[in-house]
Every structure is written in C-alpha cells, then in structure tokens.
Sequence to fold (1357 residues):
Amino acid sequence: MSSSEHIHHPSPAQYWKIAVVLAVLTAVEVAIYYIHRDFDLGNFNTVLLIGLAALKFVIVIGWYMHLRFENRMLSRFFTAGFILACALYTIILTALGAIALTR
Amino acid sequence: MVRSRHRLIRLGVLIGAVLVLGACSLIGSEDQPLTTFEPAGPFAEQIDNLFWPVFWIAVAVFILVQGAILVAVFMFRDRDGSKEAKQLHGSPKLEIAWTIVPALILAGIAVPTTAAVFELTECDPDAIEIQVIGHQWWFEYHYPEAEIDTANIMVIPAGQEVCAVMTSDDVLHNFWIPALNGKRYLVPGQTTLLRLQADEPGEYWGHCAEFCGLSHSLMRARVQAVEPAEYEAWLAEQQTAAATPVEGTDGYEGFEVFGAKGCIQCHTVRFEDDSASNIIERASFNGPDLTHFASRNVFAGAILPEEGQSRDEALKDWLADPPYIKPGSFMPDLALTEAEIDALIVWLDSME
Amino acid sequence: MTELIHEADLDHAHPEHEGTGVEDRKLGMWLFLSSEFLFFGALISNYLLYSQRPGFPQPYPAEIYDIPFTSVSSFVLLMSSLTMVLAHNAQTREDANGARTWLFATAALGSVFLAGQVFEFTEFIVEFDMKLSTNPAASAFYLLTGFHGTHVAIGVIMLLSLWGISRRRGGLSDRHGLNLELVGLYWHFVDIIWIVIFTVVYLLSEPPL
Amino acid sequence: MTATAERPTTTIFRRPSSTKGLWSWITTVDHKRIGIMYGYAAFTFFIIGGMEALLLRIQLSQANGEFLTAGAYNALFTMHGTTMIFLFVMPASSALMNYLLPLLIGARDVAFPRLNALSWWIFFFGGIFLYSTFIFGTSAAPVGVDGIGGIDGNLAPGGGPGSFNFLADSPDGGWFGYQPNAGPLYSPGTAMDYWALGLQIIGLASLVSSVNFLVTVLNLRAKGMRLLRMPVFAWMTTITSFLLLFSLPIIAVALFMVTFDRQFGSLFFAAQAGGDVILWQHLFWLFGHPEVYILILPAMGIVSEILPTFSRKPLFGYSAVVFAGAAIAFLGFGVWAHHMFASGITPVAQAAFGLATMTIAIPTGIKIFNWLGTMWMGRIRLSTPMLFAIGFVAMFTIGGLSGVTHAVVPSDWQQTDTYYIVAHFHYVIFGGAVFGLFGGLYYWFPKLTGRLMNERLGKVHFWLMLLGFNLTFGPMHWLGLQGMVRRTWKYAPETNLEPWNVAVTIGAFIIAFSILIFMINWFTSRRRGEVSGLDPWDARTIEWMSPNPSPEYNFAVPPVVTSLDHFWHLKYDEDAEGRAVRKEDGDEIVATIDHEQLNPASPIHLPNPSYFPFFFALGLPLMFYGVIYHKQLWGKGLIIVGLIIALAAVIGWAIEPLEEPHGDHDEEQDAIPPSPPAAVLPPSEGETESSDD
Ligand code: HEA
Ligand code: HEA
Ligand code: CUA
Ligand SMILES: [Cu+2]
Fold:
C-alpha cells in the first residue's frame, strides 16, 4: 500500500529469521555478562557488549524500520540525531568527569 | 533640499550622542571601587592586557561595518535620476576574503586566550591557601594553617599569591574581586580555585556575582591586602581567644544577652575559658565567627556600615531587624530591646 | 492545477509540489524520532553520571538488578518488534485479519513488558528499599526506565486503538494503514532505545567500589 | 461538490464550520489566522515583559532604590527574561513563520494544519499557565530548623525595604533557573514549579511546530522551487526548526528532572545528597545556546528578504548566506559551556569552548558582509522596513562583537554575570531579533491587511527606538565593566553607578514610548492605511504573488518557480550592463497575477477547521496544575481530568472525518477577499500519533 510498496521489502520468513538472530545476540550478551562475572574480561567485556548492542540496534533500524530501503534523506536525519546526541552527551560526561579514559 | 537637511540633522544628532556618551564615560570613571579597569595585581593585569587588544579589534570591525552602512546609505540612496542597480549575485573572491580575514583575526585572538586560560587556572604550589565558603548571603574565610575563621573581609599579604579554595554551603555563589582577578563560582559539593594577588596594600571591593537568592545583591566582599609582616601579626592576633567577660566589666551585660538570646546557636565565639565556648559546632545555621568581630570594619556581607553611617548605628540597625536590612537573612529578628542591643554593641565592640 | 486531491491520495508525495517523495506523516515521524535520541540520550547520560559516583547511601541500582528477569523482559520487547513488523507486513498484503492479530500480539507483548517493569519497580522499592529519593543514581534509574516505560505505554495505547478501529471497520483504510506503519516506527524506536538501555544500564553498569 | 469521500466516514462529530466569530478562531487551522493569533499573543507578552523591565528600571534608577522589594525584583527579572524569550521572541518569530512559510514556498497551508493549530493552542495555554503563577504561585525564602531564619514573620515573601511587593510570589530563580537555588530546598513554594512546567508546555508547542515546518518545507514547495531557490526566510525557518527539534528534548529532560526534584523527591540537583548542580548548567545551556540562535536566525531571514527588496538588487551571495545560517546552527551546538567559564570546568574545556565560540563569528561575519554587499551599489529606498533591517545589521554587529569579547575566556571571567553581559544580549536580541521582527511587521503588513503602515509614524518609531535602545543598553557595557553585577536589586551609592543607571532608565522609557507609536500606527493603518495593491514594494519573492490581504487559499494558481527571486524575474529583465529593466508589460503582468489569484478557476481544497487541537491543548495545563498540587486529592483529580480531556480530544482527532461537505462555494467566489471559498480537503492531514511525548 501507499507508503510501504517498496520492492525490496523482506518477507515474513525473513522477519522471523531476523528475530532469531536478534534473540541469539541477546542470549550471547547475557552469556557474556555472566562469563565476565566469573572470569574478568576487562575492557573486552565492554567492547563486546556494546558491539552486540550496536548490531541489534542496526538490525532493527535497518530491517524492521526499513530504513535501509527508504529515502536517503530519512536516514540522514536519523543518523544526524543519533550522532549529535552521542557527541554532545559524551562531551558533557567528559566535562563532568564521568568518563575517564581508563577504568 | 529639505530632505538632505533632515539627513544632516540626523547625522548630527548621532555624532553628538556618541560624543556625549564618550565624554561622560571619561568623567564617570573616577572612583568606582568595583571597576575592572584598575587591576591591582598580576592576574587582573593579565586579563586587562588581553581585553584591550580584543576591544580595539572590535572597535575596528565596528567602524568598518558601521562605516560601510553609512557610506552605502548615503552613496547609493535612491534619488531622482538614480539608475537601476546592477543585478550582482555575489562575488566569490570577496566572499572568500571576508571568510578568511575574520578567521585569521580570530586565530590571532585565540592564541593568547588559550595561553592565559592555562596560566590563570592553576594555583602556584607555594601560594597561601585560604578557603572561601559561600553562605546565603555572606562569605566565610577559613585559614587552614592558622586555623582561624573570619567573615566578610579577607585579609591577605600584599605581593604574595593567595590560592582561594572555594566551595559553598548552600547555593551557587560567585566570588569576584575585580581588581585582583576574574570570578569563580562557589559550587556546593565541589571545590574551585581562584588565584588572587594584590601588589600593593589596600582595600579591594568585591561582590557575589551569581544570583544566589533573595539577597544576592547584598552579598558583598572585601579584600584587605596588608604588608606581609602586618599579615603575620594579624594572624597571630586572630588566633587568640576572646576574653570571657566577668561581672562588672563593660561588656558583661552584652555577653549575658548573647547567651540568653540564643546567639550562640549560630555564632561561634572562642573564649579563653572553655566552659563558655560555643556548644553547637557548625550548626546548619552557621553564622559568622564573632571572636574578633571588632577587628572587621564591615559586616553582614560587607554591606554595613553604609555610606555616612557609623559602625554602631549600623550594628544597631542590624541587630534590631536583620531581615529588614537583608531580606531573607538567616539571622532572625530576635526582638531585642534597645537596652539589650546597646549592651550587645558594647560587648561586640570590645572583641578586637 | 487546483484539481481536487482525492482522499485516498492523502499524505502521498505531493505530485504538484517539489518534495522528498516521502509521505508527510512519515517524514514527520522520522524527524520526531531523530529528536528523541536527544531526549533519551540526556536520560541515559544522567544515569551514567550518577551510577558511578561513590559515596551514596545504599543501594545503587546496579547492586540489585535481576539480570535473568530483565533479560526475559528484554526478550519479550524484542519479539514485540517482530510481531509489529509482521502486522505491518500483513497490512501491506491487505490481510486485515493478520494485521489485527499481530497488532494485538504486539500490544500484548508490550503489556507484558510493562507488567515486568511494574514488578521490577515494586521489588526494588519494597524488597531493596531503593526509592526515587534514595540517591541520585536511583533517581536517574527510575527517571530513565520510567520514561521509557511511558513511551511503551503510549505505544500500547496506539496499538490498541488501531486494533479497535480495525475491528470496528473490518480493516484499516489507507490512512490508518499509514498510521500502522508510523506506530510501527515508533514502536521499533522504543525497542532500540531499550536495546541500548539493557546493555548500557543493566549489563554494563557496575556500582562504584 | 466533488469532494465527498468515497469511503464511509464515522460522523460522530460534525466538523466545525463557522468562518466568523470566536469559534472560527478557536477551530481554525488556517496558518495565517494561527500566525495572527501567535502575533497578537506574542506582542501582548512583549508589553507585559516590557512593563516588567520598566519596573526593574525604576528600581535601579537610584542607588539603594526602594521602589520594589527584593522578592518583587527577583520575580520581575525572572519573569522578564522568561517572557521575552519564550513568550515574545519565539512566538513572534513563530507568528511570521506561520503566516509566511507557506506563502514563501507557494503552498496552500502547512503540512499538518491541525497540528499547527495544536502548537498554537499549546503555546497559548502554556503562556497562561506560566503567568497564572502571579495568581496561584507562592514563593518563600527557605525557612530553617525550628522555623528560625528565613522570612521574618511580619514581612510578606521578599520583604525588606521597598514599597512594591505585589509580584514577589512568582518564579524568582532567574530565566536559567540555576540549581540548587531554584530547587526544592532554596525555592520552596510553587512558583518555580509553574516556571518549570510552563516552559515544558511551551517547549512542546515549539517541538510540534518544528516538525510541522520541516515537513512543510521538505514536501510542499511549489513546483520548481528547488531548495536553493527558497527565499532566505524560508531557509532560516528550516534551520531554526532543526535547532528546535534537536535542542528542545534536552531542556525537556532537564525540566523534568527539576520537576521530579521539586515534586517527587528525586535528588538530581540536590548537592547535599551528591547531586551535581553543574549538570543542570550543562543541560540548560546545551539547549540555551542553540536557543539564542533560534531567536536570531528568523530575524536574519527577515532581514535577508528586506535588504534585497529595498536595495533593488539580489541578495549578495545567496548560497553563502544560507550556508552561513546552517553553519551558525551547527556550531551553535558546540559552544554551550561559554556560559560556564566561571564554573570551574577544566582549562582544556574552557579553552576549547572559547575557541569554538569564536568560530561562530566567521559565518556570522559572512552574513553581515553579504548584507553590506547587497546594499552596496544598490538603489536604496529607506522605507521603514529597510530602516529596521539596516538597524538590525548595525546593532546586531555591536552585540556580536561584545559576544566575541566574552569568548576570550579570561576576559569573560571579569565580564560574566555583570551588566556587560546584559548589554551583549540585549544588543543581539533587541538590536537583532526585535529590530528584525519589527522590520518584518512593516514589510509584510500589507499581506495581512491589504494596506500599508504609515511611513511617517514608522520612521518616528524607528528613530526613537534606535535612540532609546542605545541609551538603554549602550551604557550597560560601561556599567558592567565598572562592576555592576547582574540581578542586583540594589547597588551601593559608593559604587558611583547611579548616573548611568538613570540614563538607562530614561532610555527604557523612550523605547516604551516608541512602541506606543508603533501600536498607534498599527491599529490606525489596519483600517485607514494606504491600500497596498499586489506589489507595494516592488518585491522579489513569490509571497507577493498572493493577493493582499492573502486569501484563505493563498494562491489560486500556485506559481511554478523558475528561479530565485521568481517574482522579480517576471517583472524585470537585465540590460547589457546587468542593470534591471522593467519589462514593458511589467504592470500588466502584476495586474494579471492579481486578477488570476483572486479568481480561482476551479474549486480549491483546504483543510477543515477542527475542535480537537484546542481541547487537546486544554488538557495539558490541567494535568500540570494537577502535578503541582498532586499531594492534594483534587490535584490528583485534576491530573485525571486533564488526561481524560486530552485523550478524548486525541480520539476525536483520530476519527474526525476528514471533510464535511459545505455549501456550494461557487457562489462565494466573487466575495474574495475577505471571504474565501469553502474549504474542502486538506493538502494533507495531521497525524494522530502526534500526541505521544
Ligand atoms: C540572539 C541572541 C544571541 C546571539 C545571536 C548571540 C551571539 C553570540 N554570543 Fe551571546 N548571549 C545571548 C544571546 C545571544 N548571543 C544571551 C541571551 C546571553 C546571556 C544568557 C544569560 O546569561 O542570561 C549570551 C551570553 C553570551 C556569553 C556568556 C557570557 C557570560 O555569561 O559570561 C558568551 C560568551 O562567549 C556569548 C558569546 C556570543 C558570541 C560569540 C556570539 C556570536 O554569535 C556573535 C557573532 C557576531 C559577530 C562577531 C558580529 C558580526 C561579525 C563580523 C562583522 C565579522 C568580523 C568579526 C570579527 C573578526 C570579530 N554570549
Ligand atoms: C527578547 C528578549 C528581551 C527583550 C526584548 C528585553 C527588553 C528589555 N530589557 Fe531585558 N532581559 C532579557 C531579555 C530581554 N529584555 C533577559 C533574557 C534577561 C535576563 C533575565 C535574568 O537575568 O534572568 C534580561 C534582563 C534585563 C535586565 C537585567 C536585570 C538584572 O539582571 O537585574 C534589565 C535591566 O535593565 C533589562 C532591561 C530591559 C529593558 C529596559 C528592555 C526594553 O527594551 C523593553 C522595551 C519594551 C517596553 C518598554 C514595553 C513596551 C510598551 C509599553 C510599555 C507601552 C505601554 C502600553 C500600553 C499603555 C498598553 N533586561
Ligand atoms: Cu551569593 Cu550572589
Ligand atoms: Cu551562548
């Protein structure tokens, strides 16, 4: 219909597959959390978890929100908001001393 | 004809106004104790030296822009017989020029700015530390080495650097002695630093600059710079305890009132005799330490005595109704009788 | 030139205008969502700031998280994105029944998530005595997750309204079909915010030593 | 009527249909009417804010003045700042943007007309909510243990010497509400809650309209109007909307944090419990600095329209001016901490923010010089709008330059929190935004009324205001550098600041007088001004291709744009030298346009009025009153009532039929203007989901 009639839309089957991927990623995240508790993974823990979350984040936006298949302008606005937020709040947290370069 | 005369008149008025303003500013510059134009120490000096070049650059840009406006308006004004304008859409060369030139000017300003920021933020390790604690609405000064507490007047040795280590007891305040340095906030729960130095002995005025509630306008400050020897003597004197008045002496009645009216709930007085000393340590309604009250020539947030007022008159007003003098003051109106006030004044005046 | 704009064409790319080709409402929704990053960003950084500050009265949120429980409710929310996208897909295939079912499923999963949050808050308050006013870290935790929960709740209401309209009319019109897509965008957005919260606030946050 | 829907629509409600009277205003979704309402509201708040300023000035005209009590003074400057920024300049810009944006880009209305009405009503009720603090709010100095301290029993809040205490029970934390002073401990009472929640409501209004404007610009431009053919005012509206879109969520969070601190016991800014009071400053200024560009960019857009028209030349360096605007907005997000140079942030941060701040002078300079370039070699007519535009360039430059002196961090340590800052921002805001807005009002007055404002009065207004303005704010530079701190209720006679303060006060009254002249001019010209015709200024942009006053449908024939300054190119050719030459049939062309636009050949479809924006907006303040008084039962009740009203309105909104057949409009056609043809279909409709957040 109207808006959604773009040719490249994934099919329900693909949506299910994506969901499985997301679920697995979540499970891995939780697993890492517990592994880190018993065997200190150090900064690796942070990197892994953030990486996995970022992956989920991108998958949901790209496929479930169809951003991959939309007008480029939408993704530009959306990324602009995201990047702006990250940049500004990083600066604030640094200025307030909440982000130290090492733990 | 008539139109151009109007124009001349307008121009005349404008130029006249500028001249008058300029002249007045020269006259006005005398004796303004909070002025930023008379630095009395190296830090304020450095800021002053930074301000003026930037100011002149700004003046130059100002003249350029306003001049261009005036010229354009007078030269290109639509008159009878003016030709239609050429439809110019821009000029890349010019536009690049007026992007780059300001960028260069600003880069020129940026260098000394950055340097000064770093120089002025770190205290010298040898500097004398004085703690400044902001209260609604007065400044408390604590000398950690000598372990003395005073208020309203900060005494410092001339020619030496003082590092003010500052915090606040309640809301934000902003400590500012224009002749000695710029300002710095006093932040509850955090410490900030401010370098101060006066080259010559003298009295320097200041003000709390951050809005800090009802009586922010009545939160003022003084710095008294004295010769180093005098400073040592002052410290020694401040360390002494106050004599406990005995019955029959001059201050005794006032001392009695002080105890009876609950002044000691808020004010510390360090007596020679331990038994009479303040029982409440640093209560939430911490008032100024009064042990050497009489050694301070201003009080109540450096607002009293006012111009043309004697110290005793001012003190009388203050004790009669502090929140009237200073709205919201945490020192309440204790409904003292005139006699009690007089007695208190006698005693307070004795506490050199 | 001033011909009538047929209602079914409503919100379509405006043929008589210069434009992006994206429907007005959809464009608006994306713009709104991009500004939501700034909203949640502030809340998350607020939490990051306070959750690591030492010296507050106990407990810190990170000391009392129930990770298995939260993992499950995160999973529920994640799966609600699946049902949402399936609802949208059904709608594009003009499968009114399918769309309605999946809409309902999404709302139900969202409600389960919300119930989980209510349970979590209750437990924190009653069992662990961590209130909004216990310490700034707790304040930040409740504000962040609370606002996220509010977003979810608004989403559930919107889903249920669409479901109701679809039931009454036996399907969604084009206009409401677009609404479904928009609610979907909103819903996924709320989900990605939770992806971040789950990782950053729950899994990565450690109380100060 | 061709417009009947093919699909059955639920017809529980008839859509409102009045075109006259109160209800027509309450239910209107016409961007022009909404703009007018914004305008009048904003101007009313300007008068109120101005009167507050005059009271401040009376108090300060004397050392140790005793006209106001401390409490009243603090409340007045807080409300003055808040009013002028949030209730005057922002909505006044919004008024012009609303009225003009669709006209400038050749559209019939904004993308979401109902949403547009919603923004306006939210703003309006937000303003009323904020100002109701004068009636309901309470404010008191903190009272300590055992009730000792704090206010003296026999004094009303505020207390102290001074005769006027009548406003003291109002928000008194300053327009930037620094914590913890504006927090629960040091500002008990409800006044600051009114402030925080009032700003929250007003912010929501701007957020909604920013989305609306952006979609309008992106999707509804007339055929041929590529982005780089848009009038600069449309561009600045776009950029401002982006600023709003990205900065308002930040202040929303900050205000929620304050409200939670004050109402529900959270501890975000409670220093005694480990809260960080500097966090508030970061969040506030992270919004607050983009905010100042939100104030100035629309005015810059206005000036960029006026200068070319009255210089009879195209804008010099159009794309540079546009990109400079975007650059200002972008850089504007990276400089906020220059308001916190004295707060003890690290030297690295101070230096970095100082440098970042300086860079903003570069794009601003580009604008200034391009405006000068526009006037240069032009054929300048000094009509009133032009005077204001030139005044803008001259005065804004002064304010901008003092801004650069603040960016020099150590200098700012001396200057911050003094009247030098007060001088800076009044030069940029009053000398900039307000001069620009007045220029816009004179310039576009014919669009509103079909008449011109009186030139003579206009010039008197300008010169008086220029004089008064400089007399008011010029000496403040000096006062600040002589040590007069801001927000000071009293200053000591020994500081010798009195003479200058007297001058400032006189200046303020001259401004007030000039505004009075403006008001007289406005109201007399509305009825008796010279009739303007289609093209009173020999203008360049297509909003002038819509008749004056603009009919409800804006354009019967939407223009097909072929170039920047499309309208001008319809009228003028260039000779070999590049000078403009009016086409032989120039007058004819104008007359034809006028005729064509006044006599639509076919039915025109416009959005229908709606009740729901009004009622939805009504629900919000009720809820927020409830939040303030949530400890009482009736407060809780109010929250629920507000919620129900809002919810009901949203539901009504969602199922409202999109159109309702009207009487045959063909008969009404000849009556245009003022009475437009019946509205039928929106170019597009508001979204139901807009109610979230
Ligand atoms: C319309 C609103 C507006 C605008 C446009 C600006 C513009 C600027 N402002 Fe201002 N500002 C305010 C409104 C505004 N400001 C307000 C309201 C406050 C106080 C808030 C409060 O505390 O209550 C404030 C406070 C404020 C401070 C904090 C002061 C303090 O509290 O200590 C600073 C510090 O850097 C600052 C800087 C600047 C700068 C560098 C610009 C620049 O954008 C100016 C750029 C313009 C020019 C420079 C002129 C034109 C340029 C040229 C002709 C080119 C050549 C120039 C050079 C080479 C120098 N402003
Ligand atoms: C848009 C912004 C704006 C505008 C236009 C103004 C306009 C004015 N401001 Fe503004 N001002 C601020 C924004 C603005 N201000 C802000 C943000 C602050 C900081 C607040 C804070 O510290 O928290 C401030 C602070 C501030 C102070 C400092 C207070 C202090 O720190 O203690 C002063 C002092 O003189 C002042 C004066 C004035 C004056 C005299 C005007 C004049 O230009 C006003 C002119 C208008 C009128 C005089 C009204 C017009 C008409 C009439 C009265 C006609 C009569 C009508 C009828 C009979 C119906 N302002
Ligand atoms: Cu302390 Cu102002
Ligand atoms: Cu700023």
The CA atoms of residues 78 and 191 of chain C lie 6 Å apart. Strands of chain C lie at 17-18. The pocket of heme-A (ligand 2) is lined by residues D 47, 50-51, 53-54, 56-57, 77-78, 80-81, 84-85, 88-89, 174-175, 422, 426, 429-430, 434, 472, 486-488, 504, 508, 511-512, 515-516 (CB under 6 Å).
